[in-house]
Structure formats: C-alpha cells, structure tokens
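#struct-help
A.M.: can someone run this one for me? Single chain, 150 residues.
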Amino acid sequence: MQGLTWDDHKIGATYQTLGRTVSETDIVNFVNAVGLIEPLFMDMEYVKKESVFGTRAAPGTLTFALSEGLVIQTGLIHGVAMAWLGGEVKVVAPVLAGDTIRVEVEIADKRETKKPDRGIVTYKHRVFNQRGETVMELKLQRMIRRKQAQ
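D.P.: on it. Structure tokens below:
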C-alpha cells in the first residue's frame, strides 16, 4: 500500500478513519508505560470522589497517540511520510473509558521545500467521540515524499 505523495495531496480533501474504542486497559497500560501515575488515571476511589468525570479518563496524550494510529491505518501517508514536524493540539473534551474515537483528516495546506524530493503538508485533524462530539483538534505538519522525477 502506498500513501499519497506530496503531489497527490489536494488542499480541502478530507478523509475519515475507522473508530477505536478506548478501554480501561488502554488507559492503565499507557499511563504505566509513560509514567503518568496520577490518581486521576490510576486511583478509582479518587476518581469517584474527586474527579469531575466520575469514571476513568484517558490522558490527552493517549487520545493523541490513538488518533495518530487511526490516521496511519488509513494508508494516507504510508510509505511517503518522512517526518512529523510538530503542530498544535487542543483538547476540547474528555475521552472516557468506553468511548469510541474516530478522526477526520483535512488537507489544510502544502508547500514546497528547497529539496525536490519532499514537501510539507499541513493537516487539520478533528477527533470525535461516538456521539459526534469533538474531543480534540490538531493542526500538524508532516514532511511528505514527492513523486520521483520522470
């Protein structure tokens, strides 16, 4: 499977990912793996008494990581992405254990670079839960391979 080269990216085009349900196991494994050992993520008695959510919430970084995985699974940038260059992430609403997220990817902009084998693409990602509510908004840039000269 080959993703879209820089040349094939069309500004304004949108793509949808599949859904992914976030489980309690996902949250516990993630916070342990990266060291986010906070009561909000690990202590259910604390969550029941002190949290505004009343149930286990996913860290925003987990939501971001899962959304990136969903985007990769579309094949949109498979074999053509050269680097993730950064961007802006806005957490809009919580993702709770049991929520199912999906991502809408929009090609927002693209520009050439000094090197003829690559370009920069700006993407807008909107992450939605199962109720269609926006939970995260991202604007990110990736270095994408260009078509080879004929």
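A.M.: thanks! Residues 20 and 66 are 8 Å apart (CA to CA).
D.P.: also worth noting: The chain has one domain: 6-145.
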